[in-house]
Amino acid sequence: MKWLDFWNADTPIYVNDRHKAVHYRLVAGDILRLLPGPAARVMDYGCGEALCADQVAGRCAHLYLCDGAPFVRDRLRARVSAIGNVTVLAPEELETIPAGSLDLIVANSLIQYLSHDELKSALSAWRRLLASGGKLVIADVIPHNVSALTDVAALLRFAGRHGFLLAAASGLARTFFSDYRRVRAELGLTHYDEAELLAILRGAGFSGERLAWNFGHNPARMAFAATPSVAGNA
């Protein structure tokens, strides 16, 4: 089994509909915080269900929603089909986007599910798509010293602030016996130190820095912003 197989179905990650709605509202707000302006062409890579895509689309020229799971893409298309400046596509369809045409690419809560080789391949594709002054943001990166217990504590604090604490507690119990725990034990998650990810970005032709804030609810994880470097991959 691969992580993509897990995400290609309903999952136990969200404890209830409120959790899912608040999560996607926060992510949309974080993307909007980074928009360079209303003429921006944006891609949310590994977007999931992107429940607030309409909010982002309403503030930019075009929004690409890219996800590897056909199940997720079908749901997305059904929901955003009436929004004229939104395109849903698979990773293998990135070649249909003109080189150098995107102003912002966001990959949130994604690279922990990719191997090092898969990340390098994605970075190459993203670099081709970014305009010379474009920005890549990789968020929710898990450092080596952050454990599953840290993630649990962050979720419970988040749930307490947004009114679904009891659901979160019962949801964590369900997750303990779910496929997610088994798949996580089998496949693991990819962790990066700050210096390690910055070095990978440099090797892929980017100049990067760590942001002072992370997407979503977990401040123990990291976010990075990067721009294509003049020297390219040299």
Describe, in plain words, how this protein is organized in 3D:
The protein has helices at residues 3-7, 17-34, 53-57, 70-80, 116-129, 148-162, 165-176, 179-187, 194-203; strands at residues 41-45, 62-66, 86-89, 102-108, 130-141, 206-210, 222-228. It starts with a helix and ends in a 6-residue tail after the last strand. The protein is globular, with a radius of gyration of 17 Å. The protein is α/β, with parallel strands linked by helices and 234 residues long.
Strand-helix topology:
Layout: H1 3-7, H2 17-34, E1 41-45, H3 53-57, E2 62-66, H4 70-80, E3 86-89, E4 102-108, H5 116-129, E5 130-141, H6 148-162, H7 165-176, H8 179-187, H9 194-203, E6 206-210, E7 222-228
Parallel strand pairs: 1-2, 1-4, 2-3, 4-5
Antiparallel strand pairs: 5-7, 6-7
> Biggest sheet, open or closed, and with what strands and sense?
7 strands, mixed
Beta content comes to: 15-25%
**Rg of Cα set:** 17 Å
Global mean pLDDT:
92
> Structural class, from secondary structure content?
alpha/beta
Q: Uncertain runs with pLDDT below 50, 5 residues or more? A: none
Q: Say how many strands there are.
A: 7
Short description:
The chain contains 9 helices and 7 strands, in the order H-H-E-H-E-H-E-E-H-E-H-H-H-H-E-E.
Search tags:
42% helix; 234 residues; 19% strand; 7 strands
